[in-house]
Amino acid sequence: MRISDALLPEFDQETATTRKVLERCPEEKFGWRPHPKSWTMGELATHVARLPNWAVYTLTKSELDIAPPGEEPYSEPAFTTSKEMLAAFDENSKAAREALATTENDAFMGNWSLLAGGQTLFTMPRVAVIRSFVFNHGVHHRGQLSVYLRLNDVPVPQMYGPTADEK
Fold it and tell me: Considering the domain 3-151 in this protein, what is its CATH number?
């Protein structure tokens, strides 16, 4: 069995669920944050919308330095409109799905590293990076975003079962 055949159904399900959450983020609340140390709703939604693209980085490169010495660090400028955010999410998800679908088992088992300032933060097999750093990371931040919705009286969509808003 191909590793991608095991990952794609989960990717498709989580992508559809994540899009439902992103669709509910009101533009007029993009600047709202629950605490001074927290991201704004727009910043968090931007991160969630861009996370699928990390699958592409993972499957097409051997490493990523988020703060390369002598260069600008990786950044994610926040979207200003829902339309822009959803279009980016759809594009990133399509590219991620394509990368997942075309990656062979040997490549999934190859190591990938995340660096900051030239220093290795971690090295793991690509399949582990996809599961933890891409899939689980996305679900984690989607959960945070669902709390932002609740705190702003925006109906929370069903994810793994009914919510108080959708039975």
Answer: 1.20.120.450
